[in-house]
Amino acid sequence: TKAQLETEVSKYMSYVLRHAPDAAGLTLDGEGWVAFEELEKALTSKYDVSRAEIIAIIENNPKKRFTLADNRIRANQGHSVEVDLALTAVEPPADLFHGTSAIAWHSIEREGLKKMQRHHVHLSADVETAKIVALRRKGGHVILRVDAARMFSEGHSFFVSDIGVWLTESVPVQYLSPD
Ligand code: HQG
Fold it and tell me: Any idea of its EC number (predicted)?
C-alpha cells in the first residue's frame, strides 16, 4: 500500500542520512547535509516515488526526523556517521526521562546510561514520550528519571535537538532513579 511504501522510504532515508550514505552513493557534508536532488535520485532509482511524494514523506514525518532547507536535507539526530550538528549547550529542565527495557536496566543500574551506537544519550522532557521510546523494546519496560538539574550543576553539558529531544554524553548512575 501507499502507507507501507512511505514507511519503507522513510526508514531507508533514516538509514542513509544517519548511518550509511555510501549505500546510496551519497556523501554528507560536515553537518550532515546532502543536496536534496542527490537523495531524490537515490530514492527514485530504488522506489516508485515522485519528488512530491518524497517531500510529503519528509513533511509528514511524525517525529520530524529530517530537515529540508535551501535544497539540502539532513537527519535531525541519531547519526552513527561522524557529523557535527552544531548544537549549542543549554540548561536542561530539572528532570528528564529515559524509557528503556527491564533487561537493559540490569546493566544501566550498574554502568549508567551510555550512548551506545549514537552520538549522545537521548532523553525525553516528559514521561509520555519516554514511554513511547520504551515501547519500541520487547518485554518489560522501565522509565528512568534523570536528575538533570544536579547533572548540569555538576558540569555535565546538555543539548536539545530541533525536535525537543534532550542529548547528553552519558548519565552516571547517581543521577538515575526508576520513575
Ligand atoms: C540502552 C528513536 C545496557 C538504552 C526513539 C536504549 C528515541 C543501555 C538502548 C531515539 C545502557 C540504545 C533514542 C547500558 C543505554 N547497558 N543498555 N549501560 N545504556 N542502554 O535506540 O534512547 O526512531 O540508541 O536504554 O524514539 O532507545 O531513531 O536509544 O534502550 O527518540 O528517530 O541502549 O531513537 O527515535 O538504544 O532511542 P537507542 P533510545 P528514531
Answer: 2.7.1.-
- Which residue has the least CA distance to atom 39 on ligand 1? 122
CATH of domain 2-75: 1.10.10.970
Among protein residues, the one with the nearest Cα to ligand 1's atom 2 is: 133
Helix (H, G, I), strand (E, B) or coil at 15: helix
**Residue-wise pLDDT tens digits, 93-113:** 999 999 999 999 999 999 999
Q: Which residues have any ligand 1 atom within 6 Å of their CB?
A: 63, 65, 78, 100, 104, 107-108, 111, 113-114, 116-118, 122, 133, 137, 165
First to last CA, the chain: 40
pTM: 0.81
Domain residue ranges of the chain, discontinuous segments joined by +? 2-75, 95-178
Given ligand 1 and candidates 10, 98, 131, 133, which is best to mutate, with the most ligand atoms within 8 Å of its CB?
133
pLDDT tens-digit profile of 118-155?
A: 889 999 999 999 999 999 999 999 999 999 999 999 99
Query: What CATH number should be reported for the domain whose range is 95-178?
Result: 3.20.170.30
